[in-house]
Design goal:
By secondary structure, this protein is mainly alpha-helical. 76% of the residues lie in helices and 0% in strands. Helix 2 packs antiparallel against helix 3.
Length: 92
């Protein structure tokens, strides 16, 4: 039980390097650049595609960051904390 608690604590305190997040941002910008360059050749713009593309990139970036910091965003692990507190209460 102690090894599981230690593994969980280390997993929650270990985060991605800033380089990984920076590269994710660079990939997002490169995708936006290529999509904009592709749409720039036509006479008119499809605003539906522009908005959908921006929304998909934003949601993907947010979900990745939210999964990285599980206690701060919408995706929570409170049920696991309660489970561990119940186990600790039963042990003592």
């Amino acid at each position: 039980m102690f090894a599981i608690a230690t593994t969980r604590t280390i997993g929650l305190q270990t985060h991605q390097h800033g380089v990984v997040i920076g590269m994710l941002g660079v990939v997002m910008l490169a995708c936006a650049l290529l999509a904009g360059f592709s749409m720039g050749g036509g006479p008119d713009r499809s605003w539906l595609h522009v908005v959908c593309f921006a929304a998909v990139l934003t949601v993907a970036f947010y979900v990745i960051l939210d999964l990285e910091y599980p206690r701060l965003g919408f995706i929570r692990i409170d049920w696991m904390d309660r489970f561990l507190q119940d186990v600790r209460r039963e042990m003592g």
